[in-house]
C-alpha cells in the first residue's frame, strides 16, 4: 500500500505541478488579453477602445473618429477612403489624425457618444470628450482631407489689398469673400463657421476700406464670385438680424450652381443622394471627364427640379437647351447681382435686386445617351422618348409631365407656374398587372389596381412596398411569402406587395424600403404603418389583433435583440433597416 501510495504521488506530482504552471500560463495569457492604453494603427488609422481612447484625445489636438460595425456595408466601403485620408494627412505632417472604434465591441464608447447608425464620424478637438463635432463632409478621401484641413488652419484667407483679392478671385471658378467692417463682429464669426463647413469652395475675408470701395460695397456683404452665368452674386448682411449660418449656407449652395446643371452621378458618398440608389444602376460605359454633379444637385436642397431629357448626340435636341436656359433665371430665387464691367471688380458698379421668386426651381439637363440612362427607370422613360420634360417635387418625388407640343421658353414657364400653383396633376407610374396577380398567395398590386384592392371595405389588406434592389426587402421576402400562404384561405385578409420603383400612388408617399401598410376593412380609407419585427409570427399577431400588436412584457436579455429586421444582427440595434429613396 505504501508503495502504491508512493507511485501514485510520483505519477500525480508532475501533473499537479503542470496544472499550477498551466494556471500561471493562463493567468499570464489573460493578462496579455487585457487591452492597454497603447495606441496601435491599422493602415495609418488609430485603433481605439475604451482603454486608450482618453490617451488618444490627450495626444492629438484634432482627432476624427469613425464608429463602425464590421458587418456594415457602408463602413466597408468607407474603410479604404478613410485609410487614404489618414495617409494623406500624415504625409502633410498635419496635426489632424484619424481613428476608428468598433462600436459593436466597444459598447460603452458607443453609448457614451450616442451612436445610432453606422458609420458615424465625430471630431474631437483639444481633448474635449463631452462635445464632439459631427462630421458633415463627403464620405470619400478627398472630402475627409478637405474637411479636416479647414479645421487645422483658418477657415478663410485674409485678403489685405486689391492685388491679393484679385489673385484669390482668379484662383478658382468659384470663391466666396466676406466683406466686414469689423472682423471680430458676430456676423464675421458666423461667416467663419460657414466657411469651416463648406469645404468644397475657398473662402476669403476682407475689412480694408479700399476693398469695399473697389467692389462697390458700403456695408457688410458676402460676395460669391464665379466664372459662369452672371459672374457674381451678393448677399448683404442684415444690420438688424445679422447673419444666419443656415440661410447663408443655403444661398451659397443654390447660387454656386450653374443656372442649368448637367446630371452626372457620384461614385459613392456614404449614402445615395439620387432618387434611385447607386447600387440599382448598372455601371456606366461612359467615362466622363466632366465633374460629378449629383452631390451638388441634391445637396442644394432646392425643392423643385425641372429636368430636360435629351440626346446630346442629336444636334436638333441639343438646341432645346437654349430655350431651357432662358427660363432658368426667373426661378432661381432672390439674389442681388452684379451688372456691368468685370465681375471681379469695378468701382461704383451698378447693382439691382432681381429674379425675386419665393420658390426655387433647379434646371437640370439629363443626357439619355450618357449618364442619364441610369435614371430613366425612375421616371418610367426610355431613350426613345427624348426629348421630354419632367418637373419633380423633391419633398414627395411627385413627377409632372409637360405636354410635348412645344418646348418654347413661354411654354416651359407656363408649365412650371401651373405645377407650382397646384393646377396640374402628377404623372403617376404604373406597371401592367400580371395575369395571375390575384391568384397568388401574395397578391401583386400595381398603380392601376391598388385603389380597388387596398380600399376594399370588406377586406383587411396588408401591403409590402418594396424595391427589387433593396437588400432588406430581399431578406424578408421568404417571410412575406410564408405569410401569404398562411392567410391565402382567409376571406377577409389579403397579403399583397407592390414594386414602388415601377408604381406610384397619388396620396401615399413611400420614403424607404421596405414599407408595410395595413388597410383595415370598413369605411374611411384608413391606413396603419407597420413598424415592428419582420417575421411571420409578429406579422400574424399584428393581423390577428386587428392592425396592432398586443402588449407584452419586455424580455430580459443581456444582448438586446435586433427587432427591426436589419440585414445583419447588431448588438446595439442600430443597424440601418430600410433603404432610403
Automatic annotation (TrEMBL):
Where in or outside the cell it occurs: the entry states: Endoplasmic reticulum lumen
The annotated region (Disordered) lies at: 542-581
SUPFAM superfamilies (UniProt xref): Thioredoxin-like
Q: GO CC annotations?
A: endoplasmic reticulum lumen
Enzyme Commission (EC) number = 5.3.4.1
Positions of the Thioredoxin domain: 7-153, 419-548
Top-level taxon in the UniProt lineage: Eukaryota
Question: Pfam families per the record?
Answer: Thioredoxin, Thioredoxin_6
Q: Which Gene Ontology BP terms does the record give?
A: protein folding; response to endoplasmic reticulum stress
Q: Which InterPro entries does the protein's record reference?
A: Thioredoxin-like_sf, Thioredoxin_CS, Thioredoxin_domain
Q: Which PROSITE patterns does the annotation name?
A: THIOREDOXIN_1, THIOREDOXIN_2
Listed under catalytic activity are: Catalyzes the rearrangement of -S-S- bonds in proteins
Which positions make up the signal peptide?
Answer: 1-17
Output the Gene Ontology terms for molecular function: protein disulfide isomerase activity
Assigned keywords, A-Z: Chaperone, Disulfide bond, Endoplasmic reticulum, Isomerase, Redox-active center, Repeat, Signal
Q: Which family is this sequence assigned to?
A: Belongs to the protein disulfide isomerase family.
Record-given protein name: protein disulfide-isomerase
Give the organism the record lists: Aegotheles bennettii
This protein's gene is called Pdia2
Amino acid at each position: 500500500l505504501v508503495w502504491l501510495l508512493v507511485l501514485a504521488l510520483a505519477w500525480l506530482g508532475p501533473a499537479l505541478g503542470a496544472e499550477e504552471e498551466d494556471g500561471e500560463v493562463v493567468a499570464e495569457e489573460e493578462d496579455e488579453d487585457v487591452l492597454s492604453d497603447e495606441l496601435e494603427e491599422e493602415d495609418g488609422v488609430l485603433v481605439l477602445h475604451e482603454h486608450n481612447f482618453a490617451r488618444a484625445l490627450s495626444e492629438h489636438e484634432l482627432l476624427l473618429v469613425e464608429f463602425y460595425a464590421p458587418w456594415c456595408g457602408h463602413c466597408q466601403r468607407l474603410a479604404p477612403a478613410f485609410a487614404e485620408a489618414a495617409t494623406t494627412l500624415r504625409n502633410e505632417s498635419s496635426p489632424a489624425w484619424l481613428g476608428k472604434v468598433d462600436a459593436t465591441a466597444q459598447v460603452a464608447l458607443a453609448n457614451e457618444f450616442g451612436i445610432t447608425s453606422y458609420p458615424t464620424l465625430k471630431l474631437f478637438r483639444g481633448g474635449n470628450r463631452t462635445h464632439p463635432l459631427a462630421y458633415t463632409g463627403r464620405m470619400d478621401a478627398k472630402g475627409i482631407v478637405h474637411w479636416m484641413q479647414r479645421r487645422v488652419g483658418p477657415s478663410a484667407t485674409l485678403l489685405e489689398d486689391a492685388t491679393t483679392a484679385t489673385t484669390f478671385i482668379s484662383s478658382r471658378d468659384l470663391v466666396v469673400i466676406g466683406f466686414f467692417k469689423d472682423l471680430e463682429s458676430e456676423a464675421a464669426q458666423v461667416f467663419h463657421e460657414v466657411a469651416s463647413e463648406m469645404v468644397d469652395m475657398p473662402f476669403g475675408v476682407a475689412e480694408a476700406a479700399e476693398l469695399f470701395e473697389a467692389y462697390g460695397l458700403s456695408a457688410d456683404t458676402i460676395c460669391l464670385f464665379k466664372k459662369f452665368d452672371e459672374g457674381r452674386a451678393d448677399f448683404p448682411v442684415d444690420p438688424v438680424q445679422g447673419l444666419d449660418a443656415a440661410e447663408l449656407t443655403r444661398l451659397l449652395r443654390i447660387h454656386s450652381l450653374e443656372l442649368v446643371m448637367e446630371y452626372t452621378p457620384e461614385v459613392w458618398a456614404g449614402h445615395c443622394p439620387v432618387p434611385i440608389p447607386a447600387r440599382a444602376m448598372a455601371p456606366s460605359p461612359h467615362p466622363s471627364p466632366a465633374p460629378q454633379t449629383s452631390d451638388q444637385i441634391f445637396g442644394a436642397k432646392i425643392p423643385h427640379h425641372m429636368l430636360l431629357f435629351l440626346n446630346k448626340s442629336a444636334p436638333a435636341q441639343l438646341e432645346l437647351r437654349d430655350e431651357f436656359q432662358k427660363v432658368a433665371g426667373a426661378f432661381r430665387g432672390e439674389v442681388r447681382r452684379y451688372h456691368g464691367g468685370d465681375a471681379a471688380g469695378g468701382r461704383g458698379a451698378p447693382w439691382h435686386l432681381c429674379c425675386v421668386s419665393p420658390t426655387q426651381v433647379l434646371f437640370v439637363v439629363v443626357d439619355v445617351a450618357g449618364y442619364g440612362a441610369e435614371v430613366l427607370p425612375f421616371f418610367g422613360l426610355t431613350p426613345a422618348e427624348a426629348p421630354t420634360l419632367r418637373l419633380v417635387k423633391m419633398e414627395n418625388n411627385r413627377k409632372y409631365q409637360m405636354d410635348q407640343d412645344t418646348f418654347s421658353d413661354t411654354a416651359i414657364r407656363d408649365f412650371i407656374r401651373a405645377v407650382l400653383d397646384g393646377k396640374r396633376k402628377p404623372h403617376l407610374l404604373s406597371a401592367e398587372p400580371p395575369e395571375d396577380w390575384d391568384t397568388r398567395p401574395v397578391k401583386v398590386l400595381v398603380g392601376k389596381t391598388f385603389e380597388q384592392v387596398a380600399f376594399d371595405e370588406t377586406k383587411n389588406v396588408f401591403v409590402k412596398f418594396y424595391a427589387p434592389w433593396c437588400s432588406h426587402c430581399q431578406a424578408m421576402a421568404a417571410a412575406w411569402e410564408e405569410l401569404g400562404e398562411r392567410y391565402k384561405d382567409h376571406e377577409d385578409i389579403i397579403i399583397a406587395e407592390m414594386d414602388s420603383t415601377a408604381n406610384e400612388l397619388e396620396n401615399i408617399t413611400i420614403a424607404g424600403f421596405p414599407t408595410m401598410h395595413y388597410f383595415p376593412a370598413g369605411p374611411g380609407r384608413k391606413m396603419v404603418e407597420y413598424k415592428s419585427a419582420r417575421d411571420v409570427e409578429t406579422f400574424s399577431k399584428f393581423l390577428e389583433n386587428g392592425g396592432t400588436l398586443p402588449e407584452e412584457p419586455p424580455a430580459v436579455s443581456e444582448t438586446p435583440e435586433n427587432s427591426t429586421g436589419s440585414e445583419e444582427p447588431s448588438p446595439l440595434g442600430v443597424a440601418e433597416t430600410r433603404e432610403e429613396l
